Amino acid sequence: MNSAIVESICIFGSVARATVDELSDKDVLIVASDPARRIDLATSWQCLGWSVSTYSPKRFDAIYQAGSLFVQHLKLEGQMVSDTGGWLTQRLHRYRPKRTYKPEAQNSVSLALPIERFADDQPLKANLLAADLAYVSVRNFGVCELADRGDYTFEYDHIVDALSDISSLSRYETKLVRSLRLGKSNYRSHSQPANFDGSVGDLKDILGKIFPDRRLGTLPGEARPRCLGTGYSSLRDIEATIVSRLGRLPTIREIESDGLMSVWKLIQRPSHYTWSIRQLGFSNHFLPTFGGNLSEKSNFLTKELLF
């Protein structure tokens, strides 16, 4: 089929499952071979309040060949809006998941490691970044771990229930993990702190039960950002470094004055399902250390992100 005419739109997530609530995003996938058309479609859907994932056919085929569970998600739950020539329909019909997702589950643990930058006695309602980080990690880990057991599920409540049984969480612990979704929503919308119980220490203990062979410690305040194995987790460690040293989110003026705007824009666009790093090399970039020497050079930061 001529990829020059590819244009596919597919709704997925809670809208497709008919489980929408006040915290739900409205998720839509757009695959189009013409870059200008792809941008126009994405803009139109975004103006209607949708969270848009955009792909070129080549990029979508790359995650297809890699056995991405996102493709399985689309296959099982996606609702096709339009599909020129049946391009996406045919791929979803042929798709088969991998036999194991253990490596992906292990990689998901790294998404929680930035929480080590926060002290155990901090209340979660005053540290919504920790709740956000834990939500992303638990959800990604749960999707992969359950898929490895033949359970292809993408709904957070179902993931929490399954992980609670596997990890023998108490009722309080299960409730706290379930509340992370609200914490994530409040953090990303810059809303008032979510009204839920628990401390960062409680969260670390729970994650230690969920994640095999990995318990979260506490890093010293001067610890530099780390390369954590994926582009997204490394970016979020920069975010946690800044927030832990400031005790709050940075202001736009602080971000602009320290040359972090391009990185901060990446951090604030949580497309963690598809971000990857071409090479986990190091390059010399300015990395601000709010509260200290703001422009000290470090050998960190990622070299190239794939989109």
UniProtKB/TrEMBL annotation:
This is Nucleotidyltransferase domain-containing protein. InterPro entries: NT_sf, Polymerase_NTP_transf_dom. It comes from Tateyamaria armeniaca. Residues 6-38 form the Polymerase nucleotidyl transferase domain. It comes from the Bacteria. SUPFAM superfamilies: Nucleotidyltransferase (SSF81301). Pfam families: NTP_transf_2.
